[in-house]
Give the backbone structure.
Amino acid sequence: MLQGKQEPRQITMNLERLPNEEKLSLCRKYYLGGFAFLPFLWLVNVVWFFREAFVKPAYTEQLQIKTYVKRSALGLLLWVAVLTTWITIFQHFRAEWGEVGDYLSFTIPLGIP
Amino acid sequence: MNASDSDDDSYTERSALVPSENPVVPSYRPDPDLDAAGDTVRRAGPAAAAADGGGGGGGGSDPEVDADDEELTLKYGAKHVIMLFVPVTLCMVVVVATIKSVSFYTEKTDQQLIYTPFTENTASVGRRLLNSVLNTIIMISVIVVMTIFLVVLYKYRCYKFIHGWLILSSLMLLFWFSFMYLGQVFKTYNLAVDYPTVGVIIWNFGAVGMICIHWKGPLQLQQAYLILISALMALVFIKYLPEWSAWVILGAISVYDLVAVLSPKGPLRMLVETAQERNEPIFPALIYSSAMMWTVGMASPADYQLTESERFQVCSRCVPGVLQVCLSAGGVKLGLGDFIFYSVLVGKAAATGGDWNTTLACFVAILIGLCLTLLLLAIFKKALPALPISITFGLVFYFSTDFLVQPFMDNLAAHQFYI
């Protein structure tokens, strides 16, 4: 009976059971959260809301959810590109950088580089 | 690492991590004494909607409830068992895989938890045994004290404190332990990794974990995270508990579980009863939920809360590993403490046992124990401890396989004698 204000926390999340405004709000929060250096959150957003945004028959909030999902995907791709580039550079040039390379390293492999 | 901080919360983490909020549907005992109508009025919103949707299911007349229960037990029993098998198996697989590949967790270390101050590096067997028993006594007393503390906090409604404690514990597990774990994995595979990358990985893993567990997230992700943190916790135990102490502690904690849940003055029992008096779900404990949502008899799509239709929900609280039947919306729940101790047993078998025979035997033993526990639960329909049967079987299988079956099979193989 108590809906609206009192938002019950569910242990298990089932998107099916949420009203559309809730879905939109959740999607938006995940999207905004991803800006805190959290590409993983964007990935979760995309995967989780993909069906909602693209497969389900249209409903009012779907358009906005679609935009959020698209933007999350975009942000994710950007992060993946940046990370891949950085990792490639690091792996390739680590030995040559000498001290700086060691300083940046979390683990240093043993043996011949 | 003295691990004092981490293990300060080690026990409470078990009772801590997951959804800070209570399950939507409170545990409902199919007890003829409870007034169904009264319950409906007193319960909070979700349950009220649930009772509506449940209709004949939860709030029906008592004979109906009983008959329904019987049917449900049979119908959904097997499904529940399978639903629990998968996550328990996954957790054990992660632990065993780590133990076998990353040597860090099996390396002998002189560091011990502050809860097990007596060393096992003693000259005589008797002394070693004595030390392990003393370690166990200390560990169990710590656990008892913490449980009682938690029960007291709950009784006096210090929810904020409990909530904060849970968040702190999960923060530590998700960030610090996974950081250590990642470092060890990289070292094992001799990879060069830089701080920025590691930073991003750990930050993402931890932050999304916190969001999924304490707020809202997709179910499978939440399950995956719970499995992972149980595995991490189990690995820490395997690393820092001395050999013999670990086995004695496993035995002792099963006994404690039995006592705490079944005896009238047991802290867990008091917890369960307090929660039921208040008609609240039991306080946020580590709960794994395999969810869901078989939409049998579900009300309209607008009804977004978990409907308390005729489904069984097996809830196992971790703090002592209470197994309780909750008549509420589908799925199976198991406390993370149970995951952790099962994994500790199998992990230790993998680390110190002869070979895969021992590990497999323990694994099978635990699953059998789990089945039996669920069976008993379906029969008795009241709060039951989840640890004793599985751990007992596990211990029996471990020692018999390691000391009897293994040499037997080795001998047979050596003499090329096939039976």
About this structure: The longest strand of chain A covers residues 105-107.
